[in-house]
Please model this.
Amino acid sequence: MTMIAAKRDRGSAALERGKAATGLTLFIISLLIVFTTGSFAQNSRPAKTGAHSSGSRDAFTAADRRIVERAIGATCTERVRDPQGSTPIDEMQSRPSLPVNNPEALAGARRAERLLPATRKLVINAIVQLAKEYDLYDAGISRARITGATARVDSVKRVKADVDARDNASVALREPRTIEFGTIFLAGLKSDEAMISVLSHELTHIASGQSDSLRPLFRAIGRRAATRMGLRIQGQRAEELSCDLVGAIAAREFIKQNVTWEPLPRRVARAFEHNCVDDDASDEDHLSPRNTIRALFTLDVSLATEIVGPNIGARQTTPFRFMELTPAMGRF
Model:
Protein backbone atom coordinates (compact mmCIF):
# COMPACT_ATOMS: atom_id res chain seq x y z
CA MET A 1 0.00 0.00 0.00
CA THR A 2 2.80 2.31 0.79
CA MET A 3 4.55 1.73 -2.57
CA ILE A 4 1.33 2.15 -4.55
CA ALA A 5 0.51 5.35 -2.69
CA ALA A 6 3.98 6.67 -3.39
CA LYS A 7 3.61 5.97 -7.12
CA ARG A 8 0.27 7.75 -7.15
CA ASP A 9 1.79 10.76 -5.36
CA ARG A 10 4.65 10.97 -7.86
CA GLY A 11 2.21 10.62 -10.75
CA SER A 12 0.00 13.37 -9.36
CA ALA A 13 3.00 15.62 -8.89
CA ALA A 14 4.13 15.05 -12.47
CA LEU A 15 0.64 15.77 -13.73
CA GLU A 16 0.52 19.02 -11.76
CA ARG A 17 3.95 20.04 -13.07
CA GLY A 18 2.72 19.43 -16.63
CA LYS A 19 -0.37 21.51 -16.06
CA ALA A 20 1.74 24.32 -14.59
CA ALA A 21 4.12 24.29 -17.56
CA THR A 22 1.20 24.36 -19.99
CA GLY A 23 -0.38 27.28 -18.09
CA LEU A 24 2.88 29.24 -18.10
CA THR A 25 3.25 28.71 -21.86
CA LEU A 26 -0.27 29.92 -22.50
CA PHE A 27 0.32 32.97 -20.25
CA ILE A 28 3.48 33.91 -22.16
CA ILE A 29 1.69 33.52 -25.51
CA SER A 30 -1.15 35.72 -24.24
CA LEU A 31 1.29 38.41 -23.19
CA LEU A 32 2.93 38.36 -26.62
CA ILE A 33 -0.45 38.71 -28.31
CA VAL A 34 -1.46 41.61 -26.07
CA PHE A 35 1.78 43.54 -26.55
CA THR A 36 1.93 42.88 -30.27
CA THR A 37 -1.69 43.92 -30.78
CA GLY A 38 -1.20 47.00 -28.64
CA SER A 39 1.81 48.03 -30.66
CA PHE A 40 -0.08 47.76 -33.95
CA ALA A 41 -3.00 49.66 -32.47
CA GLN A 42 -0.76 52.54 -31.42
CA ASN A 43 0.76 52.75 -34.87
CA SER A 44 -2.63 52.78 -36.54
CA ARG A 45 -4.05 55.62 -34.41
CA PRO A 46 -2.95 59.21 -34.99
CA ALA A 47 -1.15 60.80 -32.07
CA LYS A 48 -3.20 63.19 -29.98
CA THR A 49 -2.26 66.81 -30.37
CA GLY A 50 -2.75 69.70 -28.02
CA ALA A 51 -4.43 72.97 -28.82
CA HIS A 52 -1.12 74.63 -29.67
CA SER A 53 0.74 71.69 -31.24
CA SER A 54 2.76 72.56 -34.30
CA GLY A 55 1.08 69.85 -36.37
CA SER A 56 -2.46 71.15 -35.92
CA ARG A 57 -1.42 74.80 -36.02
CA ASP A 58 0.53 74.54 -39.27
CA ALA A 59 -2.03 72.45 -41.15
CA PHE A 60 -3.34 74.17 -44.28
CA THR A 61 -5.39 72.09 -46.69
CA ALA A 62 -6.53 72.40 -50.27
CA ALA A 63 -10.04 73.07 -48.92
CA ASP A 64 -8.64 75.94 -46.84
CA ARG A 65 -7.00 77.37 -49.94
CA ARG A 66 -10.32 77.33 -51.80
CA ILE A 67 -12.03 79.13 -48.90
CA VAL A 68 -9.29 81.78 -48.93
CA GLU A 69 -9.74 82.46 -52.66
CA ARG A 70 -13.51 82.65 -52.31
CA ALA A 71 -13.15 85.05 -49.39
CA ILE A 72 -10.89 87.38 -51.40
CA GLY A 73 -13.53 87.60 -54.13
CA ALA A 74 -16.34 88.06 -51.61
CA THR A 75 -14.42 90.81 -49.79
CA CYS A 76 -13.83 92.85 -52.93
CA THR A 77 -17.39 92.30 -54.17
CA GLU A 78 -18.77 93.44 -50.84
CA ARG A 79 -16.61 96.57 -50.95
CA VAL A 80 -18.59 97.74 -53.98
CA ARG A 81 -21.97 96.96 -52.39
CA ASP A 82 -21.25 98.43 -48.96
CA PRO A 83 -22.07 102.13 -48.49
CA GLN A 84 -19.18 102.20 -45.99
CA GLY A 85 -16.81 100.27 -48.23
CA SER A 86 -13.22 101.56 -48.23
CA THR A 87 -11.55 103.12 -51.24
CA PRO A 88 -8.81 100.83 -52.65
CA ILE A 89 -5.25 102.04 -52.18
CA ASP A 90 -4.54 102.39 -55.89
CA GLU A 91 -7.61 104.62 -56.30
CA MET A 92 -6.45 106.74 -53.37
CA GLN A 93 -3.06 107.17 -55.02
CA SER A 94 -4.65 108.49 -58.21
CA ARG A 95 -6.66 111.20 -56.45
CA PRO A 96 -5.54 114.80 -55.88
CA SER A 97 -4.49 115.77 -52.36
CA LEU A 98 -7.22 116.79 -49.94
CA PRO A 99 -6.95 119.75 -47.56
CA VAL A 100 -7.14 119.08 -43.83
CA ASN A 101 -10.56 120.76 -43.66
CA ASN A 102 -12.07 118.53 -46.34
CA PRO A 103 -15.37 117.19 -44.89
CA GLU A 104 -14.53 113.55 -45.59
CA ALA A 105 -11.02 113.93 -44.18
CA LEU A 106 -12.44 115.63 -41.09
CA ALA A 107 -14.95 112.81 -40.62
CA GLY A 108 -12.12 110.27 -40.91
CA ALA A 109 -9.99 112.17 -38.37
CA ARG A 110 -12.87 112.28 -35.89
CA ARG A 111 -13.44 108.57 -36.38
CA ALA A 112 -9.77 107.78 -35.75
CA GLU A 113 -9.64 109.92 -32.60
CA ARG A 114 -12.83 108.35 -31.26
CA LEU A 115 -11.59 104.80 -31.85
CA LEU A 116 -7.99 105.24 -30.69
CA PRO A 117 -8.57 104.53 -26.95
CA ALA A 118 -10.43 101.27 -27.64
CA THR A 119 -7.94 100.25 -30.33
CA ARG A 120 -5.02 100.54 -27.92
CA LYS A 121 -6.60 97.86 -25.71
CA LEU A 122 -7.53 95.67 -28.67
CA VAL A 123 -3.96 95.76 -29.98
CA ILE A 124 -2.37 94.69 -26.71
CA ASN A 125 -4.84 91.80 -26.37
CA ALA A 126 -4.17 90.73 -29.97
CA ILE A 127 -0.40 90.77 -29.46
CA VAL A 128 -0.69 88.62 -26.33
CA GLN A 129 -3.05 86.26 -28.16
CA LEU A 130 -0.61 85.84 -31.06
CA ALA A 131 2.41 85.45 -28.77
CA LYS A 132 0.63 82.58 -27.01
CA GLU A 133 -0.56 81.01 -30.25
CA TYR A 134 2.98 80.99 -31.65
CA ASP A 135 4.40 79.66 -28.34
CA LEU A 136 6.40 82.82 -27.72
CA TYR A 137 4.71 84.32 -24.68
CA ASP A 138 7.16 82.80 -22.19
CA ALA A 139 10.06 82.26 -24.56
CA GLY A 140 10.98 84.48 -27.51
CA ILE A 141 8.64 87.21 -26.30
CA SER A 142 8.82 87.44 -22.53
CA ARG A 143 6.13 88.99 -20.41
CA ALA A 144 8.52 91.85 -19.73
CA ARG A 145 8.59 92.61 -23.45
CA ILE A 146 4.80 92.54 -23.56
CA THR A 147 4.72 94.97 -20.63
CA GLY A 148 7.06 97.32 -22.50
CA ALA A 149 4.96 97.02 -25.65
CA THR A 150 1.84 97.84 -23.63
CA ALA A 151 3.43 100.99 -22.25
CA ARG A 152 4.44 102.17 -25.71
CA VAL A 153 0.96 101.57 -27.12
CA ASP A 154 -0.67 103.36 -24.19
CA SER A 155 1.53 106.40 -24.85
CA VAL A 156 -0.13 107.07 -28.22
CA LYS A 157 -2.71 109.78 -27.63
CA ARG A 158 -3.12 111.65 -30.90
CA VAL A 159 -4.03 111.30 -34.56
CA LYS A 160 -2.66 113.98 -36.87
CA ALA A 161 -3.95 114.70 -40.37
CA ASP A 162 -1.23 115.40 -42.94
CA VAL A 163 -1.91 116.53 -46.51
CA ASP A 164 1.52 115.42 -47.75
CA ALA A 165 1.08 111.86 -46.40
CA ARG A 166 -1.78 111.44 -48.90
CA ASP A 167 -2.81 107.74 -48.88
CA ASN A 168 -0.49 106.60 -46.09
CA ALA A 169 -0.40 106.33 -42.31
CA SER A 170 2.87 106.33 -40.36
CA VAL A 171 4.52 106.66 -36.96
CA ALA A 172 7.90 108.00 -35.83
CA LEU A 173 9.38 105.46 -33.40
CA ARG A 174 11.68 108.08 -31.89
CA GLU A 175 8.57 109.99 -30.77
CA PRO A 176 5.78 107.41 -30.65
CA ARG A 177 2.87 109.45 -29.38
CA THR A 178 1.18 110.38 -32.64
CA ILE A 179 -0.13 108.50 -35.67
CA GLU A 180 -0.01 110.58 -38.83
CA PHE A 181 -2.70 109.96 -41.45
CA GLY A 182 -2.76 111.27 -44.97
CA THR A 183 -5.99 113.16 -45.60
CA ILE A 184 -6.77 110.93 -48.58
CA PHE A 185 -6.42 107.87 -46.36
CA LEU A 186 -8.67 109.39 -43.68
CA ALA A 187 -11.33 110.07 -46.32
CA GLY A 188 -10.97 106.62 -47.89
CA LEU A 189 -11.52 104.58 -44.71
CA LYS A 190 -15.27 104.96 -44.30
CA SER A 191 -16.04 102.47 -41.51
CA ASP A 192 -15.02 101.87 -37.90
CA GLU A 193 -13.78 98.39 -38.78
CA ALA A 194 -11.47 99.69 -41.52
CA MET A 195 -10.13 102.47 -39.31
CA ILE A 196 -9.40 100.07 -36.44
CA SER A 197 -7.47 97.75 -38.74
CA VAL A 198 -5.20 100.62 -39.85
CA LEU A 199 -4.84 102.18 -36.39
CA SER A 200 -3.89 98.73 -35.06
CA HIS A 201 -1.28 98.32 -37.79
CA GLU A 202 0.49 101.51 -36.76
CA LEU A 203 0.16 100.78 -33.04
CA THR A 204 1.84 97.40 -33.58
CA HIS A 205 4.88 99.13 -35.09
CA ILE A 206 4.96 101.31 -31.98
CA ALA A 207 4.53 98.26 -29.71
CA SER A 208 7.65 96.68 -31.16
CA GLY A 209 9.51 99.99 -30.83
CA GLN A 210 13.07 100.89 -31.67
CA SER A 211 14.27 97.79 -29.81
CA ASP A 212 12.31 95.47 -32.16
CA SER A 213 10.91 93.65 -29.13
CA LEU A 214 8.25 91.86 -31.22
CA ARG A 215 10.72 90.67 -33.85
CA PRO A 216 10.43 86.98 -32.80
CA LEU A 217 6.68 87.14 -33.36
CA PHE A 218 7.09 88.87 -36.72
CA ARG A 219 9.53 86.18 -37.86
CA ALA A 220 7.24 83.35 -36.76
CA ILE A 221 4.22 84.85 -38.56
CA GLY A 222 6.30 85.48 -41.67
CA ARG A 223 7.60 81.91 -41.71
CA ARG A 224 4.13 80.41 -41.49
CA ALA A 225 2.75 82.65 -44.22
CA ALA A 226 5.77 81.95 -46.45
CA THR A 227 5.38 78.20 -46.00
CA ARG A 228 1.69 78.26 -46.85
CA MET A 229 1.96 80.69 -49.76
CA GLY A 230 5.34 79.86 -51.25
CA LEU A 231 6.46 83.50 -51.11
CA ARG A 232 9.45 85.25 -49.57
CA ILE A 233 8.18 86.92 -46.38
CA GLN A 234 11.12 88.06 -44.26
CA GLY A 235 12.42 91.18 -42.59
CA GLN A 236 10.22 94.22 -43.07
CA ARG A 237 7.68 92.24 -45.10
CA ALA A 238 7.11 89.97 -42.11
CA GLU A 239 6.68 92.97 -39.82
CA GLU A 240 4.19 94.69 -42.13
CA LEU A 241 2.17 91.50 -42.52
CA SER A 242 2.18 90.91 -38.76
CA CYS A 243 0.92 94.45 -38.16
CA ASP A 244 -1.89 93.77 -40.63
CA LEU A 245 -2.73 90.52 -38.82
CA VAL A 246 -2.99 92.35 -35.49
CA GLY A 247 -5.29 94.82 -37.26
CA ALA A 248 -7.54 92.04 -38.53
CA ILE A 249 -7.75 90.41 -35.10
CA ALA A 250 -8.46 93.75 -33.42
CA ALA A 251 -11.21 94.56 -35.93
CA ARG A 252 -12.81 91.19 -35.39
CA GLU A 253 -12.78 91.66 -31.60
CA PHE A 254 -14.27 95.13 -32.02
CA ILE A 255 -17.10 93.59 -34.05
CA LYS A 256 -17.65 91.03 -31.30
CA GLN A 257 -17.85 93.72 -28.64
CA ASN A 258 -20.03 96.09 -30.66
CA VAL A 259 -22.96 94.15 -32.08
CA THR A 260 -25.05 95.71 -34.82
CA TRP A 261 -27.68 94.46 -37.22
CA GLU A 262 -25.29 94.64 -40.15
CA PRO A 263 -24.18 91.32 -41.66
CA LEU A 264 -21.10 89.83 -40.03
CA PRO A 265 -19.40 89.06 -43.41
CA ARG A 266 -19.76 92.70 -44.43
CA ARG A 267 -18.26 94.00 -41.19
CA VAL A 268 -15.32 91.57 -41.27
CA ALA A 269 -14.65 92.36 -44.95
CA ARG A 270 -14.23 96.06 -44.13
CA ALA A 271 -10.90 95.34 -42.42
CA PHE A 272 -9.41 94.26 -45.77
CA GLU A 273 -11.23 96.25 -48.45
CA HIS A 274 -8.60 98.96 -48.96
CA ASN A 275 -6.40 96.20 -50.41
CA CYS A 276 -8.93 95.38 -53.18
CA VAL A 277 -6.80 97.02 -55.88
CA ASP A 278 -6.58 96.65 -59.64
CA ASP A 279 -2.91 97.68 -59.73
CA ASP A 280 -1.53 94.93 -57.51
CA ALA A 281 2.12 95.96 -57.09
CA SER A 282 4.53 94.90 -54.36
CA ASP A 283 7.91 96.11 -53.12
CA GLU A 284 10.74 94.86 -50.91
CA ASP A 285 8.97 95.90 -47.72
CA HIS A 286 5.39 94.92 -48.54
CA LEU A 287 3.46 92.13 -50.17
CA SER A 288 1.14 93.33 -52.90
CA PRO A 289 -2.25 94.47 -51.54
CA ARG A 290 -4.15 91.43 -52.81
CA ASN A 291 -1.44 89.07 -51.59
CA THR A 292 -1.73 90.82 -48.25
CA ILE A 293 -5.41 89.83 -48.09
CA ARG A 294 -4.47 86.31 -49.21
CA ALA A 295 -1.76 86.01 -46.55
CA LEU A 296 -4.07 87.22 -43.77
CA PHE A 297 -6.79 84.74 -44.69
CA THR A 298 -4.16 82.02 -45.06
CA LEU A 299 -2.82 82.73 -41.58
CA ASP A 300 -6.32 82.78 -40.05
CA VAL A 301 -8.74 80.78 -42.18
CA SER A 302 -11.56 81.50 -39.73
CA LEU A 303 -11.54 85.10 -40.97
CA ALA A 304 -12.10 83.85 -44.51
CA THR A 305 -14.82 81.48 -43.33
CA GLU A 306 -16.71 84.34 -41.67
CA ILE A 307 -16.64 86.34 -44.90
CA VAL A 308 -17.88 83.56 -47.18
CA GLY A 309 -20.82 82.87 -44.86
CA PRO A 310 -24.37 82.85 -46.27
CA ASN A 311 -26.28 85.94 -47.37
CA ILE A 312 -23.37 88.35 -47.60
CA GLY A 313 -24.78 91.83 -48.00
CA ALA A 314 -28.27 90.77 -46.89
CA ARG A 315 -29.97 92.29 -43.87
CA GLN A 316 -30.12 89.87 -40.95
CA THR A 317 -33.31 89.27 -39.00
CA THR A 318 -31.57 88.12 -35.81
CA PRO A 319 -28.41 89.29 -34.07
CA PHE A 320 -25.19 87.48 -34.91
CA ARG A 321 -23.74 84.82 -32.67
CA PHE A 322 -21.21 87.34 -31.38
CA MET A 323 -24.05 88.92 -29.39
CA GLU A 324 -24.22 85.80 -27.25
CA LEU A 325 -20.54 86.08 -26.33
CA THR A 326 -20.03 89.69 -25.28
CA PRO A 327 -22.54 92.48 -24.61
CA ALA A 328 -22.34 95.54 -26.81
CA MET A 329 -19.98 98.20 -25.50
CA GLY A 330 -21.63 101.08 -27.30
CA ARG A 331 -19.83 103.80 -29.15
CA PHE A 332 -16.71 105.57 -27.96
